[in-house]
């Protein structure tokens, strides 16, 4: 264990010294912070109204059926709210007791039209009535947040293995791998030590991403399990990149080719209808994506979990059997 930890410590130090590896470590966090700034809240996707409290509970409750309602005590407060950067319609009554719509003037069509339709309905003017139906699908996370976070998580898991691969490239360039053949360290200890960073980084990244985006799940242990299992294919790919690449330039080229291939399964999982997902079953990354998605949506079942983990392990095993001789030769 001491030898394994010493390799892990060496790889960690090397990752913070090497600009490329440092970039791989921080890029998932940077992407997540960038995504956070562009995520619309579930409230901003619906209509928003700033109402004068003098309108009364009946009117206020009617507007609540169609969107988010904010209550203010004066028309001045409503005007200040309407002039904020988001689209919101102000509704009050004038001295004659007639409804008055307060707009900034640059709102979209729906922001202006919907409150007019609601007011007509309240006044019994049915020329342009509003019909609505409430459907609760239980979703509290905007799709862009969910799929954006999932994409970054899968990327982070893959980069964990790639980091291991580039540390192997560094060992090859420095001649360390050849020197290990005359030391007491076994090949198994070397592989375990190199794998340690590729397992730790994805776990740290995944939970940081969840925290930044604000997708809280009661299935944290299942998320940890899925991250570890998903990291196995990432590590295998990382070792493969490390042994077939003679330097960082060739490593980057090999990484790009593999990432393009694997990214197709993520894009397909987001865009293709479910009956076409059969064309993605070849990819362990697809099963990782779907498994993490089920966990984040709290839609995971024991059957789904076993299928996803089983598919990842089976496909990873197939890739390992087809590449193990190449990896063994590269580490000799």
Describe the structure.
It is a single chain. The protein folds into 2 domains: 2-38 and 140-330, no CATH class; 47-128. 67% of the residues lie in helices and 6% in strands. The chain contains 12 helices and 4 strands, in the order ααβαβαββαααααααα.
Can you tag this structure with a few keywords?
alpha/beta; 4-stranded mixed beta sheet; 332 residues; elongated; 4 strands; single chain
Question: What is shown here, in short?
Answer:
With 332 residues, this protein is an alpha/beta fold. It is 67% helix and 6% strand.
Secondary structure: elements and pairs:
Elements: H1 2-17, H2 19-38, E1 47-52, H3 57-64, E2 67-72, H4 75-82, E3 89-93, E4 99-102, H5 109-122, H6 143-174, H7 176-180, H8 187-213, H9 220-244, H10 248-271, H11 284-296, H12 302-330
Parallel strand pairs: 1-2, 1-3
Antiparallel strand pairs: 3-4
Helix pairs in contact: 1-2, 1-8, 2-6, 2-8, 6-8, 6-9, 6-10, 6-11, 8-9, 9-10, 9-11, 9-12, 10-11, 11-12
Chain-averaged pLDDT: 82
Class based on secondary structure composition and strand pairing = alpha/beta
Computed over alpha carbons, the radius of gyration is 27 Å
Assembly status: single chain
Q: What share of residues is helical? A: 55-70%
Largest beta sheet: what is the strand line-up?
A: 2-1-3-4
Tell me the count of domains.
2
Largest beta-sheet details: 4 strands, mixed
How many helices in DSSP terms? 12
Give the uncertain stretches in residue-range form. Answer: 134-138
Strand content: 5-15%
Q: Ends: how far apart?
A: 21 Å
Describe the global form. Answer: elongated
